[in-house]
Amino acid sequence: MPTLDYLDRLEAEAIHILREVAGQFERPALLFSGGKDSIVLTRLAEKAFRPGKFPFPLVHVDTGHNFPEVLAFRDALAAQLGEKLVVRKVEDTIKQKGLQDPTGKYPSRNPLQTYTLLDVIEEFEFDACIGGARRDEEKARAKERIFSVRDDFGQWDPKRQRPELWNIYNGKIQKGENVRVFPISNWTELDVWNYIRRENIALPEIYFAHERQCVVLPGGQLLGLTEHLHLDADDEIVSRQVRFRTVGDATCTAAVASDASTVEDIIADIIQAKVSERGATRLDDTISETGMEDRKRNGYF
Amino acid sequence: MDLLRFITCGSVDDGKSTLIGRLLYDSDSVSLDILAALESRGAAQGNVDLALLTDGLKAEREQGITIDVAYKYFTTPRRKFIITDAPGHVQYTRNMVTGASNADLAIVLVDARHGVIEQTRRHSIIAALLGIKHFVLAVNKMDLVGYDEQVFRKIVADYQDITKLLKLTDVTPIPMSALQGDNIVRRSEHMTWYTGPNLLEHLEAVPGAEETKAEPRFQVQYVVRPQTAELPDYRGYAGQIQSGTYRRGDKVQVLPSGLASTIKAIEINQQEVEQAVAPQGVIIRLADDVDISRGDTIVPVQHVPHLTRELEATLCWMAETPLRAGRRFLLQHHAALVKASLPTILYRLDVQSLTHLGAEEARLNDIVRVRLKTAVPLAADIYRDNRQSGSFVLVDEQTGNTVAAGLIEAVDPDYFTVAEPGAVAFSI
Questions:
Q1: Which residue of A has its CA nearest to B68?
Q2: Measured between alpha carbons, how far is A293 from A290 in angstroms, rounded to an integer?
Q3: CB–CB of B408/B382 below 8 Å?
Q4: What are the boundaries of each domain within chain B?
Q5: In chain A, which residues have their Cβ closer than 8 Å to the Cβ of B70?
Q6: CATH, domain range A6-191+290-297
Q7: Which of A241-245, A270-274, A293-297, B193-197 shows the lowest per-residue confidence on average (mean pLDDT)?
Q8: pLDDT, tens digit, 9 for 90 and up, residues A176-213
Q9: Minimal-distance CA residue of chain B relative to A189
Q10: B3-209: CATH, from 3.40.50.720, 3.40.50.2300, 3.40.50.300, 3.40.920.10
Q11: What is the spatial distance between Cα B108 and Cα B266, in angstroms, rounded to a whole number?
Q12: Which of A3, A107, A125, A143 has the most CB atoms around its CB within 10 Å?
């Protein structure tokens, strides 16, 4: 009799959720950024649906502020899987809608992703969008359902969530509504890395320690140097051995100083780390205490 | 390393949030940036308010209330833990039913100063109703009663009534102070008279989910048909083994059609395996080309469940609008979604005393016994035999909302013609 460990159980739960999406919805999509969480989702989708094709395309909402090695990885993985990749650019949404491209020193396009996401949902009439969000990431996420119903405007209302009982997921929606589905809700950052190690999953190089030109922020955090930052003459640029814990928008996702060059090193690093993933790296969550909750209410994934 | 899901039951005043905060804090699961945020929110210097670790939403902080079930995680070298944190007051029953539906263990908190109260009874009844087998009687705030052994002994003795009423077989009483950290993660220096495990030791040792002991159940979630040049005829039934073990070569029956076949292959991640157990996700392939679709159940012939269009069930009503007899719903029995009508409300359950009360309707948070008819036969079990195949939800056809949690109590067709309504004992 095989005994199942916690990773087997988390994996089984995620596969069950992915298959519920395939069984309940007509036009689902898998939101795919080329980051570790969505890469893990593609592995779980292989386990759920092979030898068949995925019953959904991969969809990337590209802020235009990504690191080039992540985009190259994204394209290579989609090709290797032989699955359809849809890319829609925030840049195009800004032009079409006449939106204000953010200015300032660190012009994050994260809030603008919501417009492009809602447009791509409308364009393809997606009724479910699978995402790699985890409840351990942020306090508002800890309260979100695995099947999270959003209204016609993509809005999340924490007070009107459906009760979610046993492992029964109710995906019944009205026209115009859609569901965001989070199969790895119950995974922590460490669980994701342990799974990456167990499954031998390839990741963009940016996750591993490498020498990189960085801007030193007033709080001491390191931002990878890209053309999208608007620097002042007295900004300090240093060359450091760094890795990234998340690969969001390059203008608001800080690197961490690290020598971890293998998955094993990273796991050891995380066990030692005393700062949470988002606390270490996401500048946009610290703008206000409810940054994430406010964005989700407006349709952010 | 395995996984344990547990729920904490208690009102805010019992120290539930402090207990969760203490578990996270003393197991080094709280990051420095999170602690810094707590300290900046006016906590006394050097004394973090651990209760603040568990509230997440703006409205909760503004109004000082807990809106909804939240999930917290921590890991020790022995286990990964998922804490289901169901709020203690507002919309009480509905949230506790939601949280208890997935839990393997319940921590029932009692304030040492107040002893066993009505809430203790309610918490225990609902946890037992939802099929939780393992209980911790957490006698908290022992620091406020001078760490007095007699106080603890009295509460343990008082809880015996509940243990007997609910036929609980595994109750572990632990005296503790979540605020001071006594017997949570570290052994208390103040209660040397207590020789049992501390809370974390117990949580690490208690048996986890036991779904492999029930009869084999498997529902088809999705049919995999690649229709490629290499695999023109491949037809695999993808789903999760809900309970028990499945083996290659098992003679099986497909429900509701009743068609018979044999398991030709069980695949996990495109590898054929001899057998698989709950809760693994698998693809099952059959020897015969039979018509099977989502929601169908495949079971070994020696373990066939009841196939029925009539059910008696316990419901927790979760909608603002009251339930009245005669309504129609969608009934979601995991992957099976069928139309259902609810001709009769038999009675309402008093969750203090387990007695039956008359009921014309069910209101938000009521627990009622009902009869249901389904448009298509369901392959169903009784909840106390199988938490998977014995559970369902009711969905409002107009809004799509989940309006009730359902626990199947009786499925035998003979029962409905001969027995008195509600004659089957409350299934604890």
A1: A143
A2: 5
A3: yes
A4: 3-209, 212-303, 306-415
A5: 142-143
A6: 3.40.50.620
A7: A293-297
A8: 899 999 999 999 989 999 999 999 999 999 999 999 88
A9: B73
A10: 3.40.50.300
A11: 41
A12: A143
Which chain A residues have a beta carbon less than 8 Å from that of B334? 166-168
* DSSP per-residue codes, B90-113: TTHHHHHHHHHTT-SEEEEEEETT
d(CA B16, CA B197): 19
How confident is the prediction for chain A on average, in pLDDT? 85
Report the residue of chain B nearest A7, measured CA to CA: B2
Angle at B66 between CA B63 and CA B69, to 5 degrees: 155
The confidence score (pLDDT) of residue B53 equals 62
Cβ neighbour number for residue B239 with a 10 Å cutoff: 28
Residue A220 CB neighbours (<10 A): 8
**Domain topology for B306-415:** Elongation Factor Tu (Ef-tu); domain 3 (2.40.30)
The whole-angstrom distance between A137's CA and the closest CA on chain B is 11
**Interface predicted TM-score (ipTM) of this complex, two decimals:** 0.92
**How many CB atoms lie under 10 A from the CB of residue A211?**
9
**Which residues 130-189 of chain B have a CB within 8 Å of chain A?**
none
- Chain A closest-CA separation from residue B33 CA (Å): 6
Half-sphere exposure of A24 toward its Cβ, with a 13 Å CA cutoff?
Answer: 26
Does residue B395 sit at the A interface (CB-CB below 8 Å)? yes
Same fold, B3-209 and B212-303: no
Give pTM, 2 decimals.
Answer: 0.92
Q: Give the start-end residues of each E strand in B134-291.
A: 134-140, 170-175, 217-218, 222-224, 236-243, 245-247, 251-255, 260-268, 271-273, 275-277, 281-286
Using omega within 30 degrees of 0 as the cis cutoff, is the peptide bond preceding A28 cis?
no
Q: What is the pLDDT of residues B372-423, one digit of tens each?
A: 999 999 999 999 999 999 999 999 999 999 999 999 999 875 555 544 555 4
Q: A53 to chain B: which residues are within 8 Å by CB?
A: 226
Which residues of chain B have a CB within 8 Å of the CB of A22?
Answer: 221-222
B410 to chain A, minimum CA–CA distance in Å?
19
Residue with tokens 């196939």: B307
Q: What pLDDT, on the 0 to 100 scale, is given for residue B428?
A: 47
Per-residue pLDDT of B151-172, as tens digits, reads 999 999 999 999 999 999 999 9
Map residue B228 onto helix, strand or coil.
coil
Contact A172 B234 (CB under 8 A): no
Contact B335 A46 (CB under 8 A): no
Residue B22 CA to residue B10 CA, distance in Å, equals 15
Residues of chain B below pLDDT 70: 28-67, 88-91, 413-428
Q: What is the pLDDT of residue A99?
A: 77
B224 touches chain A (CB under 8 A): yes
CA–CA separation, B316 and B349 (whole Å): 10
Q: First-to-last CA distance in chain B?
A: 31
DSSP string of B349-395, one letter each residue: E-TTT--EE--SEE-TT-EEEEEEEEEEEEEE--TTT-TTTTEEEEE
pLDDT at residue A297 greater than cutoff 70: no
How far apart CA B203 and CA B390 sit, in angstroms, is: 27
